[in-house]
Amino acid sequence: MTTPGPSHDDSRFLRACRQEPTDATPVWFMRQAGRSLPEYKAVRGEGSIVDAIADPDRATEITLQPVRRYGVDAAILYSDIVTPVHAIGFGVTVEPGIGPVVATPFRSRDDLGRLRDLEPEADTPYVLETVRNLAAELEVPLIGFAGAPFTVASYLIEGGPSKNHGRTKSLMLGDPALWADLCDRLADLAITSLTSQVESGARAIQLFDSWAGSLTPAMYERHVLPASTKVLEAVASLDVPRIHFGVGTGELLTLMGAAGADVMGVDWRVPLDVARDRLGPTYAVQGNLDPAVVLAGWEAVEGEAADILTRNAGRPGHIFNLGHGVLPDSDPEVLERLVELVHAWPPGPTAS
Amino acid sequence: MTTPGPSHDDSRFLRACRQEPTDATPVWFMRQAGRSLPEYKAVRGEGSIVDAIADPDRATEITLQPVRRYGVDAAILYSDIVTPVHAIGFGVTVEPGIGPVVATPFRSRDDLGRLRDLEPEADTPYVLETVRNLAAELEVPLIGFAGAPFTVASYLIEGGPSKNHGRTKSLMLGDPALWADLCDRLADLAITSLTSQVESGARAIQLFDSWAGSLTPAMYERHVLPASTKVLEAVASLDVPRIHFGVGTGELLTLMGAAGADVMGVDWRVPLDVARDRLGPTYAVQGNLDPAVVLAGWEAVEGEAADILTRNAGRPGHIFNLGHGVLPDSDPEVLERLVELVHAWPPGPTAS
Predict the structure, then answer these.
(1) Cα–Cα nearest to B176, from B215, B145, B219
(2) Of A35, A167, A269, A311, which is the active-site residue?
(3) Cβ distance A142 to A202 under 8 Å?
(4) How far, in Å, are A27, A69, A347 from residue A344 at the CA level?
(5) Which domains, from first to last, does chain B contain?
(6) Which of A287, A333, B130, B234 is most buried, judged by most C-beta within 10 A?
(7) How big is chain A by its Cα radius of gyration, in Å?
(8) Chain A CA closest to residue B288
(9) pLDDT of residue A349 exceeding 80
(10) Nearest to B218 among A219, A307, A327 (CB)
């Protein structure tokens, strides 16, 4: 089927996802839309992020803002990893400053019944309208996304953000059959959501398994990999690059790649060259500046960014990004200069 | 000088620290004293943990409780990593359910003046009395401990626990000279505190750099390693094993070892055999069961513990522990059975 808007096939971002040479290193930032931008605060309005996501005009504008301001090489849909479970009525809200909160957490097999199929046109028409708006308007590719089954499951089970994922691991290890069924349900939701985003004009997808780094490699392989593989393999036929991301996943990189990624997200704990060596030539990489460094100001950012770019040593298949989302107190001017630095890399000889 | 109590030199725990063969794998648990034990709740009393630490009778009893109940192979002093900075009047309290909280966080060079030398006999006589009590009473070695400069600095700068250590990294990268001076001060405090604990009867020490895993290896090497090396090298002459521990430090293990450890703490994210390979034969290892697995009940614990012991494959120099502290909701009976399992490993042939 044809999707709205230009293909952007020759864009820096998509070429880098395919490990093709580019005129400059592409760059975008996780959570580039949002909390750190004054223009975001101006249009965001009161109420939950869920309300802003459900308003295609606002969501479109919020997605465009960082592209305009920073000149980044990709846009990422303004949405949330819990949008599908919210839309099918599981009872999830997103509290400002906290994150997803679940009124009645997932506890037993009966709760599987609360996870019906997602019908994108009926349940999330606003997402599709936002994606179509953006596909028509953007001069860079739009990244669609979904939460990976483990990370979404952790919110549904814990009832909110968690420091140690105790309840999640208890269910995973204590009732592996129920855990597998839950993850399989969440995989189906992710597949349906990602497919609908791509069919509406997203040119790449990112699977966020943000908290997978809390697991041992053995837990990941046995209890998480199957459902994430299901998602990434199902969307392979959509013919868009698949980015797979988590925080603190140094020991999981090869497993997460094997799940079916084209691009592996790397957080700052692993030096980029070490990550590329560990992953081998199969994968492009995305990352990996510590978002906290942005708070330290331009000189610190300049040094750390140069280190990352030097470690990549001009190899094709590097998309510059932070190792996790932009922190709320980040100075947009620092990020603006960072985009300039990445695009101008390597620095030319200084006129003397 | 002579220290109180028996040397315990031939104990399982100290032999394993020195990588000597043992009749069984020694085991203890970080935070084995405290929140998860009913007998702890019975004697702990109201008020801050700081008050309980300052009462040698209570602190002695709390330290002994898990040794009695679990039959672990080492005791760890009931204290806190902020005890020295609290004792010299920096203005640190420990809030229940939160952790260390600092009324007036460290912000500038002037604040260095708030970090005077520690005089153990005058500032923390209760710690020394507790250690002497324990050295006389315990049938297993007592582990003394201190917070590593980075982790203590992060509390002083952030004012409390932090998700991303933004202010800490800002100071580290934005004013490296002040950062180095702060860490050097905190190193001196740790050295004085550890030395006084060992002279009072502690038979091993653990340096807790719990949050070092939030750093890139380059940040660790440049901004953290020097002060931690100063601590570990200064206490080398005390002739007790030095354990060095952090969470999420898979990429830092060799650096943290090189700081001067005899035993490297390993969290659950790195399989124990991978950690041993990464570290080489120089170091004993301590770990590495995910504390959240304890919440999943005995069957899960049994499987994960067997996996860890199997990965160690009988090599000397393994001290079984959790990868981080015992979680408050842990069932003491599960930990009791875990100690039995570790001591009985490898399992004999089943009678049939």
Answers:
(1) B219
(2) A35
(3) yes
(4) 11, 17, 6
(5) 12-344 (3.20.20.210)
(6) B130
(7) 19
(8) A216
(9) no
(10) A307
